[in-house]
Amino acid sequence: MTIQIFILTKLMEGKNYPYNIKKKLSEPIPFDQLAGLTESKLYYHFDSLAKQGLIETVEIIKEEHRPDKQIFEITAKGREELPIKIYKLFETADSIGEMMVGLANIKYVDKDKAIAILEEKLKSSKAKWEYYKSFEQLIEKDKDNEKLIEFLGGYVSTKAEHAIFWLEKLIGQIREGKI
């Protein structure tokens, strides 16, 4: 989904073609390599978006000794679907890291709706963390497992508290118009 959101947002900026979008993803930081995005995967997503009616070919450029270059643009349906895809990304992401493409393109959504989704995610995360903490009293500790339980408990609590902290910070930054 994040690749499709990225493609749609690039096409919101104007007509473009797959190779150029992949190039933008790789410079100056090779995000394409970091995400494992190959040209075949990119073309697959362009094809999928076209089949959904979210983008369309508007021009084919023929060059000698080179493959034809298909130029795409976003459709009206694609403009309507982009915010829906970003909202869905926010709803399904397990971490802020998984939301990065949506956050980078938050200008295409209603920020109040995004905040509401993130606040619900925060509420759910806090409730889940409280539920998990209740198990602490059920664990039998003895001399053999005491250090392991301390280690794992510290790891899990730090990770959960860290995620909650950053989600609260993200909501605040969006609310204040900083993001």
From TrEMBL:
InterPro entries: Tscrpt_reg_PadR_N (IPR005149), WH-like_DNA-bd_sf (IPR036388), WH_DNA-bd_sf (IPR036390)
Pfam families: PadR
Residue intervals of the Transcription regulator PadR N-terminal domain: 7-82
UniProt-listed PANTHER family: TRANSCRIPTIONAL REGULATOR YQJI
Protein name: PadR family transcriptional regulator
Organism annotation: Cytobacillus firmus (Bacillus firmus)
